[in-house]
Amino acid sequence: MNQSDYPLSEVPISARKGLLSTSAVLLGFTFFTATMWAGGSLGQAFSIGQLLWIILVGNLLLGVYAATLAYIACKSGLNSVLMGRFCFGEKGSKLSDFILGFTQIGWYAWGTATIALVLVRTTGMPEWLEIPLMVLFGFGFCVTAMVGYKGMDWLSRFAVPAMMLFILISLFTGIVDARGFAGLNQQTPTESMSVAAAITVIIGTFISGGTQATNWSRFAKTPKIAVIATLAAFFVGNGLMVLTGALGTMVYQQADIVDVLIAQGLVSIAVLMLFLNIWTTQDNTIYNFAVAGCNLLRTEKRRLVTVGGAATGTVLAIGGMYNLLIPFLVLLGTFIPPMGGVIMANFWLKHKGRYPALEFAQLPDFNRRGLAAYALGAGAAYFSPLLPPLVGVAVAAGSYAVLLRLNHATLSDNLPSIAKQ
User: Fold this and answer.
1) Segments forming the whole domain that contains residue 328
2) pTM here?
């Protein structure tokens, strides 16, 4: 735990990781229960043939978005919140810190409550144990995040292969129980959903996570490794989660892999899957919060911020606030992707594919072009009836490109004075 993981600076070349390590951590992040629930809604609305190509298209779009940010992260050694200083300014970047950090602490509360409630329900424990279990898991799951990248790497190298095996066993059992693909083809949808809405659901499941996956892709040795690992996680891994939820709903009327495994009589595997699934996402989630918190407070004390975030998430879980937070967090998923659009445009158009060293960069308090482009992208995403996350990214990037060409006093950067520096 003597590693700081560079919360306020670039990751040096000496600390970079290979393909196996980067892929394991990112896959552990995308193996997420909530994604399977999204897949369950698709399984009720489409035939198996339509479902497969919708999952393919939706996750390909998601993977390309996340991989583009991964390339920038690896080239620069910076994560999204540190890139936010170039995009929004020294003080303006605190907006992105708050939005990204608050989203993650809400999801941490949800995960902490979920594992306690499901474990009590699954094993028949008394209900009074729910709160003690929330405290146990709330602080227990942050241990690997406190260690840092190495801790999450160690966990993921064991957990990801195990979860992949459990999922494949469940999928094979489900296909057999459904009498093969012929049996799946005979099932008729019970709900209605447009193709555009289905693709939006898939992209929306993890595009906010894709925006913050730069926390680990910046550790990749080469941009090629960063892109491949991110595609493996957000195209293949997330796609597998959506497919698992969809097939579980079609065959067993259960989207969650844990419920499906129980329905298949694999109770021991279900309990182990529950722990690994939640833990590998929870430690990534609280790590995201800590990174955003460090940039917000301008502190190197990442482990202290991690514990503070875990305590906050645990209190929210115990108070039942996670039930109220989920709709707001989903709404924030609309407002997070435009940040990625501004980052892309700022990196390639203003900085020509290379950021200056953050330590010596002369940055304004507020980058008005970046903030204006983000506002336009977020507004477009909120009001768009079609693919809001992608619309937000495209409008934010396009707006930044246009504003960059305009030379107007109201758009000029508000540079700090020499005294402030």
Assistant:
1) 15-408
2) 0.92
